[in-house]
Design brief:
heterodimer; A: 293 residues; alpha+beta; 4 strands; 74% helix; B: alpha/beta; six-stranded mixed sheet; four-stranded antiparallel sheet; 10 strands
Chain lengths: 293, 220
């Protein structure tokens, strides 16, 4: 097959049906931009929630008279656990002192106590990987099963709510992305169908002269990928504008700066034209279907 | 080269060709004649697999067209040059591009196909029209472009459907001379025509069709 000819045929067609192609590229561009935005949103949610477990503290309340060597063993075990970032023993005396500090002027409330009612406890901070709900639950269950652990306290409900919100956003976002991507492929499908039908006579002649399916298909696949790349560039251009806005916002809002999403956004400037090309080829391929003689 | 064995073709319950049996040998030049609607075009369409036989067996070269696959059809067509009754030239392409098309389909590059195209156009005396577009040409010129395109890839078989339908006697003779020259190079030529001037005194076999049936074969 003459590749040069296929390219020439494709670009002649792009020029000939210029406005159809421009509209197809713009629609694909908007679709790809939306997909990029959704993806960036997921990334941001992920960055925020990834560090969430570090902010959660699990407190293990130990039973009275737990032997010191058992406590030390527990601390060593916890420190060796990959889910645990840090584990610190808070003795009942230091807990009482802490309470007194917090109560400040109302510290008299604990002054009159005959003995310290607070138990020894262990403060556990989780590492980022522990965000998996199932893993966390297993871990808590494991802690509860220790004979000298009286109770375990952690922000279970809040944690579960956040995980659920994250999952809902992700699931609906992925569904929305799938719809947009299908729409983009359909956009290419119909555009190439129109272009194909416009050249139907010509293609019939090619077939009668002995053209193979590949010879007939190639220009349309090239055309599909070219429209896709153009759409991807439109999306990249829009996204680049958005990165500039984010850059300005980051200077004023530390929260946005902490998300550190700009490098991720910039990677889309290359991904978008490539995805456009791929979707364009897929749309064109589906559109032409089998060449029948 | 081309063998029909009891081939029939039916269009919407109407018999277009009825149990045709004929053989055309390699290197022959033959005519298929008969009035309009006799089945001449259908017979040619069967040879280049534009239509499939409903009955019988048709063999063209190494291909049995009753069982030919979709992938084989382009290969079959590459061994055949066709001059269509309606020319089938691409109006948006120059004469050069139209004639070059069969070579591009075979994968020849711009550089490799040039000489073939020029030779072919020289043969039909249209070398000076390479940059023209088909709509700017006369009927006779378009006919000759169609012939140039049909012969450019040096096919084993040349099919021509009413190739002189739009031509004056002078051009008709010129076209027939071209067909004879191509045939002399070893190409099997099948010409469908209702013009008796073409085959009378030609010394070639003439297949006579009447309402889809082969009514006779004569050397005229």
């Amino acid at each position: 097959m003459s590749t040069g000819y296929s390219f020439r045929f494709a670009f002649e067609s792009l020029k000939k049906d210029f406005w159809i192609n421009v509209i197809a590229a713009l629609s694909a561009g908007v679709g790809l931009f939306l997909v990029a935005i959704l993806s960036i949103t997921f990334y941001s949610i992920n960055s925020v929630t990834k560090k969430l477990p570090e902010k959660f503290t699990i407190i293990l309340y130990l039973k009275d008279n737990t032997p010191a060597d058992e406590i030390n063993k527990l601390l060593t075990d916890l420190k060796n656990n990959s889910m645990v970032k840090s584990a610190r023993l808070i003795t009942k005396d230091s807990a009482l002192n802490e309470l007194k500090k917090r109560l400040k002027d109302s510290s008299f409330l604990v002054e009159g106590l005959d003995e310290n009612p607070l138990p020894d406890s262990v403060e556990i901070r989780l590492s980022s990987e522990a965000v998996e709900k199932a893993l966390l639950k297993d871990f808590i269950k494991e802690l509860r099963s220790i004979s000298y652990v009286d109770d375990v306290d952690y922000g279970e409900e809040l944690m579960e709510s956040i995980v659920m919100i994250k999952k809902t956003v992700e699931t609906s976002g992925i569904a929305f992305m799938a719809v947009i991507l299908t729409g983009i492929v359909f956009n290419f499908y119909t555009t190439i169908k129109i272009l194909f039908y416009r050249r139907k006579e010509e293609i019939e002649t090619f077939k009668l002269l002995g053209a193979s399916g590949g010879f007939i298909r190639a220009p349309f696949l090239i055309e599909g990928s070219a429209i896709g790349i153009a759409g991807g560039l439109v999306a990249s251009f829009m996204l680049f504008g958005l990165t500039q806005v984010f850059g300005l916002l980051s200077q004023r809002l530390p929260f946005i700066a902490s998300l550190n999403i700009q490098p991720y956004m910039l990677s889309f400037l290359i991904i978008l034209p490539l995805s456009g090309a791929l979707l364009g080829v897929a749309g064109a391929f589906l559109s032409i279907g089998r060449i029948r003689y | 080269m081309i063998h029909f064995e009891g081939v029939s073709k039916i269009y919407e319950k109407q018999l277009a060709l009825k149990e045709i049996t004929l053989s055309i040998e390699k290197g022959e030049l033959v005519f298929v004649t008969g009035p309009s609607g006799a089945g001449k075009t259908t017979l040619l369409k069967l040879i280049y697999a534009h239509e499939r036989p409903d009955k019988g067996r048709l063999v063209v070269g190494d291909y049995d067209l009753s069982v030919i696959t979709q992938k084989e059809i382009p290969l079959l067509r590459r061994m055949i040059g066709i001059v269509f009754q309606d020319f089938r030239l691409i109006d948006t392409k120059t004469v050069f591009e139209n004639v070059a098309m069969p070579l591009r389909i075979r994968g020849l590059s711009d550089r490799d196909l040039k000489d073939f195209v020029f030779d072919s156009l020289r043969l039909v005396n249209l070398r000076h029209k390479i940059e023209a577009y088909p709509p700017t040409l006369s009927g006779g010129e378009q006919q000759r472009v169609a012939i140039a395109r049909a012969i450019v890839a040096e096919p084993q078989i040349l099919l021509a459907d009413e190739p002189t339908g739009n031509l004056d006697p002078e051009n008709t003779k010129a076209i027939m001379d071209i067909f004879k020259e191509i045939n002399a190079r070893g190409t099997t030529v099948v010409i469908a025509t209702h013009n008796p001037d073409l085959y009378t005194h030609s010394g070639r076999r003439v297949f006579k069709l009447q309402e889809g049936s082969l009514t006779g074969v004569e050397v005229l």
